[in-house]
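Preliminary data (for renewal application), (2S)-2-hydroxybutanedioic acid complex.
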Amino acid sequence: MKLKIAALVIGATFGMTGMAHAAGQIVIKFSHVVAPDTPKGKAAEYFKKLAEERTKGKVSVQVYPNSQLYKDKEELEALQLGAVQMLAPSLAKFGPMGVKEFEAFDLPYLFDNYDEVHKVTQGAIGQQLFSKLESKGIKGLAYWDNGFKNFSSNKPIRTPADLKGTKIRIQGSKVLEEEMRTLGALPQVMAFSEVYQALQTGVVDGTELEPSNLYTSKAYEVQKQLTLTGHGYLGYAVVVNKKFWDGLPADVRTTLEGAMKDTTKYELQLAKQDSDKAIAAIKASGKTQVYTPTPAEKAAFKKTLQVVHEKMADRVGKDLLKSVEKETG
Ligand code: LMR
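Predicted structure:
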């Protein structure tokens, strides 16, 4: 009996607190397209926790994973319209909205490792790129990693020629389209949420997904082969609606900036671990054969794909490529 009353009191108290907060509470809807147990999904939840704790409930962060609210293209439109306040789209997704420089990150073998990535994303170049989003009503807050993409298919992939005539799902980036054409593959632009079904029904034959996305979306279950080509980087920009962000009380904004900084530290550590774990889990599933190419096989992919850099230099910006090169050595 006593317990029951206590539960009612606690319930009523939380209910009232909830109502009291609801009146003046600042709500941040954070929409994303991948599973909650991905680096992005976990970091979104981590940011929610820090933001709500540190603002003492003044801010409520509502995380919507798995394209529950919007698919890739729609979520950027929703952000611009103010229907959501925060997103973390992959860098490839800013190209179609006219900020082509972000497609530089899609260039094959641009980075050899996470250290090289961070020299660009966590430094001056990353900030310069963010300034290009402002005229679109978007403000960039942080860069998060996912990892390095690999080719998957139902046929073994050992050489670039093995991709000839294969329908590969890509994100809507012109650089990725050129990458596929260079390999003789047939690029199919598609939202992330549609990939599993497209593989299952044969609309596409393969993917160039990063391990944690391949694993958590279960796409590996409908792909017999995975070759660890690591041919491209997948990363995110955490972005907010600029008007919303600029309109926040200064103290709240500073607190949220701090929460984002700490979340970014957490996310960058997590991403690599999750990638490695996903590869191990895919191997252990026995559903997909995971192949590590020899150095010579990897070099063949790199050599074939080098031409994409030259072909796309004008689109993404020659100066940007030069600065990236200088930064990464
Ligand atoms: C994809 O579309 O493959 C990725 O950008 C999805 C994501 O957000 O990780």
